[in-house]
């Protein structure tokens, strides 16, 4: 029993030091911009990719992802949506064209001057990802045959 408790304490200590070290390695400009733009964010997790920073967090009851440049500029923000949160025109066109498939994922990606929507649709045989930019019609972004 003592060994298990010691392992858990060690694991928690290592996890806590790793989590705090992550924020220390993030560019101060990006960290400051994030804290200003998303005050009240919880469960914040930073990762680095090439010369940018990715952060996942909760804002209220919603999971959100943001990308920052090394200079601290917000590049894009994405979040999962429900079908009812899509613009009405996109809901209608999706219902008409994809009646025999089901939605498995729906994401909104916003950047400085545009908003795109991605929807993953599945049938028994295929998985199709559709994209709409700025509320325009859906176009096939990717299509994969299931095995």
What does this entry look like structurally?
There is one protein chain. The chain is of the alpha+beta class and 147 residues long. It is 29% helix and 44% strand. It has 2 domains: 2-74, Nuclear Transport Factor 2, Chain: A, CATH 3.10.450; 81-145, Nuclear Transport Factor 2, Chain: A (Roll), CATH 3.10.450. The chain is elongated, with a radius of gyration of 20 Å. Mean pLDDT is 83; it is low at 1-21.
Measured on Cα atoms, how large is the radius of gyration?
20 Å
What summary fits the major beta sheet? 8 strands, antiparallel
Q: What's the total helix number?
A: 3
Second CATH tier, the architecture of the largest domain: Roll
Strand content: 35-45%
Unreliable spans: 1-21
On the 0 to 100 scale, the average pLDDT is: 83
Shape label: elongated
Structural class: alpha+beta
Distance between the termini: 46 Å
| Spatial arrangement of strands, main beta sheet | 1-2-3-4-5-6-7-8
- Total individual domains: 2
CATH topology of the largest domain, by name, is Nuclear Transport Factor 2, Chain: A
Quickly list its features.
Nuclear Transport Factor 2, Chain: A, 29% helix, 2 domains, eight-stranded antiparallel sheet, disordered N terminus, 147 residues, alpha+beta
